[in-house]
């Protein structure tokens, strides 16, 4: 019998840096262990449809390469709450005209004085705040410029800095977030939604860097029949957004606009020579503002042309690959651009995913928000065909939701394929489907093998 629920929709939340899963125990669904005969989902064979409504979180995080990138062209105007000048006679107290608009937990950013993790710990009066770290260069400062920035989102992985406030390299592995999931592992991390010995459904992050690049996800489905596993993967279908409104100041570079008046690119440095895969004679400190994996552009007329993805950096050179600019540049001062700040807007959205297997013709189709996706096999050919002989079954082992289960401790995030996000609903029915209600799951009672709503009443 269905229940009607009103008010705010709840969900099963897997926060960033969690280690958790939901387990459906096989042994609890075997009425007679002597004969090992399951029932329900464990006794089903052949066609099925798995549906879920999810909200993925951003597992890449904001991998800024230095503490001062907010002031080197990679600023986030939408995150800056307030800008003001301060004075102080104590190295962890800031005095200003007004603390209006500030709150405990906001980040405090200054190009020279503060580290990336300095926070407001107390608002002691209408003109004074206390900060979390004693990071001022000296104990007396007057009329210094400072920014107050939104706290880190609980839906976005924190990222350790690569240098400390003095500009010295830090050991990233000393940071908790790096012990949980390193930058190298984040960009290819797989987040398991549903996992059984017969079928698994997951989101696969496929990015080249986490500097100005939120996670972007493919859908991956792996199905096993007769001991043969077929893995099919979509293209990038859950993506980040780019572009922002223009905040005018007299020193800003007035280029980088698209046809809709949004800023899509921002000048980051200059260079004088380009040939093949090498950008050379980059301006002083210019390469320090660019991370391996980022895309770099030049402006040609009214268009921005890709020079390539950065694969290596030197003191005044960049090595790139995959560009579309076919000419050379010689002894000509040229502006170099990066995309402006990208945002993981999907962390506040819901996505319906449908995965339907047809045993009659052994095909598997995957849908996002009701739209059928093109799937690719291990050879990167478009295919939805499933190999193997015999009938499909969910298997005679435990089913895990939100991870593959089991492992704990450092490195377990990757081993478990930990999901981070919200599972709103999940259902499995014993039929093949091509059309879906993408707002809520409404499986027919007679067809239902599993139905989890994750509302408060079910938790």
Stretches where pLDDT is under 50 for at least 5 consecutive residues are 65-78
Order of helices and strands: EEEEEEEEEHHEEEEEEEEEEEEEEEEHEE
Largest sheet composition: 7 strands, antiparallel
Radius of gyration: 26 Å
- Amount of helix: under 10%
Strand content: 25-35%
Counted beta strands = 27
Described by the principal axes of the CA atoms, the overall outline is: globular
Distance between the termini: 17 Å
CATH topology of the largest domain: Jelly Rolls
**CATH architecture identity of the largest domain:** Sandwich
Total count of helical runs of at least 4 residues: 3
CATH class of the largest domain: Mainly Beta
**Structural class determined from secondary elements:** mainly beta
Mean pLDDT: 84
Oligomeric status: single chain
Number of domains: 3
Descriptive overview:
The protein has 459 residues and is mainly beta. 3% of the residues lie in helices and 33% in strands. The strands form 6 sheets. Strands 1, 3, 21, 22, 23, 26 and 27 form a 7-stranded antiparallel sheet that branches. It has a 7-stranded antiparallel sheet with strand order 2-25-10-11-12-13-24, with no helix packed on it. A 5-stranded antiparallel sheet has the order 15-16-19-18-17, with no helix packed on it. A hairpin with a 2-residue loop joins strand 17 and strand 18. 36% of the residues are buried.
């Amino acid at each position: 019998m269905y229940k009607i629920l009103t008010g705010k929709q709840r969900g099963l939340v897997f926060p960033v840096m969690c280690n958790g899963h939901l387990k459906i125990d096989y042994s609890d669904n075997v009425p007679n262990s002597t004969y090992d005969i399951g029932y329900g989902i464990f006794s089903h064979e052949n066609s099925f449809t798995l549906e879920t409504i999810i909200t993925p979180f951003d597992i890449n995080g904001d991998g800024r390469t230095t503490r001062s990138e907010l002031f080197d062209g990679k600023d986030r105007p939408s995150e800056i709450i307030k800008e003001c000048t301060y004075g102080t006679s104590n190295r962890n107290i800031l005095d200003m005209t007004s603390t209006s608009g500030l709150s405990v937990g906001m980040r405090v950013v200054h190009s020279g004085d503060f580290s990336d993790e300095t926070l407001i710990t107390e608002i002691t009066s209408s003109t004074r705040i206390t900060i979390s770290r004693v990071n001022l260069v000296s104990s007396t400062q007057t009329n210094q410029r400072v920014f107050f920035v939104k706290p880190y989102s609980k839906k976005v992985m924190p990222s350790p800095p690569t240098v400390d406030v003095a500009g010295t390299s830090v050991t990233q592995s000393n940071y908790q977030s790096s012990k949980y999931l390193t930058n190298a592992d984040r960009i290819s991390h797989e987040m398991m939604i549903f996992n059984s010995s017969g079928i698994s459904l997951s989101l696969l992050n496929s990015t080249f860097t986490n500097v100005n690049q939120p996670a972007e996800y493919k859908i991956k489905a792996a199905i096993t029949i007769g001991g043969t596993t077929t893995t099919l993967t979509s293209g990038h279908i859950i993506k980040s957004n780019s572009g922002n409104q223009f905040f005018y100041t007299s020193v800003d570079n007035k280029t980088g606009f698209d046809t809709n008046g949004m800023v899509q690119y921002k000048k980051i440095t200059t260079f004088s020579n380009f040939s093949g895969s090498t950008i050379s004679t980059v301006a002083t400190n210019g390469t320090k503002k660019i991370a391996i994996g980022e895309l770099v552009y030049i402006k040609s007329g009214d268009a921005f042309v890709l020079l390539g993805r950065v694969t290596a950096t030197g003191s005044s050179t960049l090595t790139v690959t995959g560009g579309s600019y076919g000419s050379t540049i010689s002894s000509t001062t040229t502006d170099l651009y990066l995309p402006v700040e990208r945002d993981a807007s999907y962390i506040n959205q819901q996505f319906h995913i449908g995965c339907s297997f047809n045993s009659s013709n052994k095909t598997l189709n995957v849908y996002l928000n009701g739209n059928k996706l093109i799937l690719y096999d291990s050879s990167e050919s478009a295919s939805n065909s499933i190999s193997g002989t015999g009938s499909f079954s969910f298997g005679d082992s435990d089913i895990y939701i939100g991870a593959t289960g089991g492992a704990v401790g450092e490195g377990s995030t990757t081993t478990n394929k930990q999901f981070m996000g919200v599972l709103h609903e999940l259902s499995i029915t014993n039929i093949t489907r091509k059309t879906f209600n993408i707002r809520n799951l409404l499986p027919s009672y007679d067809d239902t093998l599993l139905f989890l709503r994750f509302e408060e009443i079910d938790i």
